[in-house]
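Just wondering, does anyone understand these tokens?
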Amino acid sequence: MANKSECPITGGMCEKDVVSKALNKVGICRSMMITLALLPFSWDGVMWAAGAVKSLWDAATTAVGS
């Protein structure tokens, strides 16, 4: 069986390579780093959805108000 230990953040299993060992020393698993790297892209999606809802709302209120 591979040398694995429990991740301090997620409670899952973390691999014991050089990167994981360094991250585990400060309490971070690799999956958490991937999640944090994707957060800025998710904010772009939130802003796009808000813009789409606003344009639909404006179109609906303009059509009803005419």
Summary: Residues 32 and 38 are 10 Å apart (CA to CA). DSSP finds two helices and two strands in the chain. The beta strands are 5-6, 13-14.
